[in-house]
Design brief:
With 419 residues, this protein is α/β, with parallel strands linked by helices. It has two domains: 291 residues, Rossmann fold; 77 residues, 2-Layer Sandwich (formyl-coa transferase, domain 3), CATH 3.30.1540. It has 15 helices and 13 strands. It is elongated and about 85 Å long. GO terms for molecular function: CoA-transferase activity.
Length: 419
């Protein structure tokens, strides 16, 4: 049975936290969506008439009630749920003052402008800190606030290449399809959003003791290097750069995909006990006693010999037969799903990882927007899904009214193009 999120009315863990979101594309919006999911009031500032860049990054596009494609790119919906969209032209003096007024009472501001880009508008950290010493100001850039690359624009693909991630991803040189390869999603952006949200939560906790906010400097390059994890640790220990190995794990064996009778299957054996149980189930118990394969270190060192035995064995059964054989033996083995098959998977459906959110905005042709559920499961202060990714400027009047801007002033702001 799929969870019914619509009945969840408990206040979120971050209820009462006000966030001003001046970010766009993915890393910043991913960070602020996480805060919004946890209950923060996130006000997303977008350019009038244009909005976040990702509103136009299509196809694919959202579909209307009749199944026809609209001009709204689905990319935007991946990272802007539970936010309120306000259109403000920050190059306009009156819009800048509105943002300063809101920042004076906000808890968090997230931005991903180029280094120094907001200083000209009086929206940089030093300017806003003077108005609100409690403000937590998170800057997300490609290369950080200082250093020789600080003023360079940084995108996920560039950083995947620069940090070494692409050089360890893909098939080895000389193999079919060999060469550096990017990940299938913008993983550096996503990790950066997660690191940024963690830093913000830490800063909120620190503020409880000190009463003061702080500036958070988050860089895609820093994150890209950090997420190399064991691969970076291996280099630091040996001085040797790791190479590409396709789907083979550099430190575990067998831990990769295998061709079966009908498709491919993933075998992810992480310890000697699992290997022994696999060998027993596969009818080859002697392999687990062979000194070449008895330990993981031995299996890694003798990987070629092990694969010469495993590859023909794995072709004797279908993928489903291998999965059925091993699933009750505590031997990790599973399918390599398409995205469509993943969403149809019984466990994915049970966990409610697809969330359909109604959206009612004047003139909008899209009645429901489907998003992926947050993986955060808090027992007392659970995630709430109270707002679909908004139409551009959907909440401008609502939010400006809360900021004390009356109808006449809003009309004047519209007339001059400030909102």
């Amino acid at each position: 049975m799929e969870p019914d999120f619509s009945q969840n009315s408990a206040p979120g863990a971050l209820a009462g936290i006000k966030v001003l979101d001046l970010s766009r594309v993915l890393a910043g919006p991913w960070c602020t969506q996480l805060l919004a999911d946890l209950g923060a009031d996130v006000v997303k500032i977008e350019r009038p008439g244009v909005g976040d860049d990702t509103r136009h990054w299509g196809p694919p596009f959202l579909r209307d009630a009749g199944g026809q494609a609209t001009e709204q790119a689905s990319y935007y919906t991946a990272c802007n749920r539970n936010k309120r969209s306000v259109t403000l032209d920050i190059t306009r003096t009156r819009a800048q003052q509105l943002l300063r007024d809101f920042a004076a009472t906000a808890d968090v501001l997230v931005e991903n402008f180029k280094v120094g880009g907001l200083a000209r508008y009086g929206l940089d950290y030093d300017s806003l800190k003077a108005l609100n010493p409690r403000l937590i100001y998170c800057s997300i850039t490609g290369f950080g606030q200082d250093g020789p690359y600080a003023r360079r624009a940084g995108y996920d693909l560039m950083v995947q290449a620069a940090c070494g991630l692409m050089d360890i991803t893909g098939q080895p040189d000389g193999a079919p399809g060999g060469g550096p390869l990017k990940a299938g999603v913008a993983v550096v952006d996503l990790f950066t959003g997660l690191y940024a949200s963690n830093a913000i939560l830490a800063a909120l906790h620190a503020r409880e003791r000190s009463g003061l906010g702080q500036h958070i400097d988050t860089a895609l390059l820093d994150v890209g290097v950090a997420m190399l994890a064991n691969q970076a640790a291996g280099f630091l220990a040996t001085g040797e750069s790791p190479g590409r190995a396709g789907n083979v794990h550099p430190s575990l064996a067998p831990y990769q995909d295998f061709a079966t009778r009908d498709a491919r299957v993933l075998l992810a054996i992480g310890n000697d006990g699992q290997f022994a149980r696999f060998c027993q189930a596969a009818g080859q118990p002697a392999w687990a006693q062979d000194e070449r394969f008895a330990t993981n270190t031995a299996r890694v060192r003798n990987r070629a010999e092990l694969l010469a035995l495993l590859q023909p064995l794995m072709r004797t059964r279908t993928s489903d037969e291998w999965i059925a054989l091993l699933q009750d033996k505590a031997v990790p083995c599973g399918p390599i799903n398409t995205v469509a098959r993943a969403f149809a998977d019984p466990q994915v459906r049970h966990r409610g990882l697809r969330v359909d959110l109604p959206r009612q905005a004047p003139g909008d042709a899209v009645p429901v927007v489907s998003t992926v559920a947050s993986p955060l499961r808090l027992s007392r202060t659970p995630v709430r899904y109270h707002g679909a990714p908004p139409v551009l400027g959907q909440h401008t009047d609502e939010v400006l009214a809360e900021w004390g801007v009356g109808p006449a002033e809003r009309a004047s702001l519209r007339a001059e193009g400030a909102i």
